[in-house]
Amino acid sequence: MSWSGWGDPAKARELPEEIRKLLHDLLGVRAPAAPAASLESVRLPPVALPPPLLAALAEIAGPAHVLTSHEARVRHTRGKSTPDLLRMRAGDGSDAPDAVVLPGSHEEVEALLRLCSDERVAVVPFGGGTSVVGGLAAAREGFAGVIALDLGRLDRLRSVDAESMVADFEPGLRAPEAERLLAGHGLTLGHFPQSYEYATLGGFAAARSSGQASAGYGRFDDMVVGLTLATPSGTLELGRAPKSAAGPDLRQLVLGSEGAFGVITSLRLRVRRIPAERRYEGWRFASFAAGSAAVRALAQEGPLPVVLRLSDETETMIGLARPDTIGSGGSSGSGRSGRSGGSGGSGGSGGSGGSGCLLIAGYEG
Q1: Which range among 14-28, 31-45, 65-79, 332-346 shows the weakest confidence by mean pLDDT?
Q2: Which PANTHER family match (predicted)?
Q3: Residue 302 marked in a binding site
Q4: Residue 336: band (very low, low, confident or very high) from pLDDT cuts 50, 70, 90
């Protein structure tokens, strides 16, 4: 993934003129070309960790898995929020970790956390680097330094229990690869957030991720049967039993914690059979209120789709980038746009001069 943006750098393209015009029409400003600073020119602070401490890290993870190069530090600086990207594009790498460490086992993670705790080194768990909530920037105050703990080497599907419909994963496995491996068993997680292409399963759990199919499959935390957490004080095994009535569910302390209480080193996740059929439709509504009423009716009365997303007028207009064709016909209050969420089709939005609101509904079974 690009260090200064989102997506595959090999697929980068110029912003289409239609989008530039749309930005001007909506905001009254032009969108001048503003190339990012080069990776080599990003300004980084000096490495704060002394050589003996770097050597101690290398003794645990192996010398090849403790990186202090300029590129490694840049690629593990911040996440993908708009403020993060703007600072990176401007060449500001002031939040860069002092080192990037790639452990190869639960035991190595635990040993690294123990060492860093003893030496007052902040540890930032790093999965796909797709955080948009500031979860990858550590505060240095009170710490001798910062390391990014890249879990990319922990990337296995360890087991599949087809009878219980539970699969055991390591946290660094990226979502597309997890789906590919599960497909070999006729199974799926059914979790497809916008970060899907690059995010990891451990990151999904640590961020309490929600995806476009969460209306039907649930959020990611709904899929977590159990997990293993490495901490400086030892290992926590959470959620071994399918259900429990004995006290609070300690998994909830970890899910959404952004790594504050430890590092997830394995996850046991509920999986589903791959559906035999998928059907997606797009509907246009005259207003967000009208679309909201339809969503409410589906949620309360059913049948509830697997995917259910309503965009407001602005998002609809920008997403389709054809404002002249959205919300421009009919008077029925809603219109079907056909499969795959296209903007054409029968019916109209019931509005005149507005963009209308696009609702995507998907059913699987």
Answers
A1: 332-346
A2: ALKYLDIHYDROXYACETONEPHOSPHATE SYNTHASE, PEROXISOMAL
A3: no
A4: low
Q: What is the pTM of this model?
A: 0.87
Residue 53 is inside which H or E element, if any? helix 51-61
Residue 350 marked ligand-binding: no
Same domain, 289 and 236: no
Query: Is 239 annotated in some ligand binding site?
Result: no
Look at residue 112 and tell me if it is in a domain: yes
- CATH number of the domain at 228, please: 3.30.465.10
Q: Which helix (H) or strand (E) covers residue 297, if one does? A: helix 288-301
Strand partners, 237: 228
- The number of beta carbons lying within 10 Å of the beta carbon of residue 17 is 8
Tell me which of 121, 150, 179 is where a domain ends.
150
Indicate whether 75 and 133 sit together in one domain.
Answer: yes
Q: Is residue 1 part of a domain?
A: no
The pLDDT of residue 185 is 97
Q: How many domains does the chain have?
A: 3
Q: Is 7 annotated as a binding residue?
A: no
Residue 201 forms part of a structural domain: yes
| Residue 128 labeled ligand binder | yes
Ligand-binding annotation for 287, yes or no, is no
245 — pLDDT class (breaks 50, 70, 90): confident
Range of the domain at 290: 278-364
Residue 169 is labelled as binding a ligand: no
Q: Considering only CA atoms, which of 139, 153, 38, 146 is closest in space to residue 107?
A: 153
74 annotated as ligand-binding: no
Q: Is 352 annotated as a binding residue?
A: no
The 3-state DSSP class for residue 235 equals strand
Sheet harboring 224-231: ordered strands across?
157-161, 166-169, 263-270, 224-231, 234-238
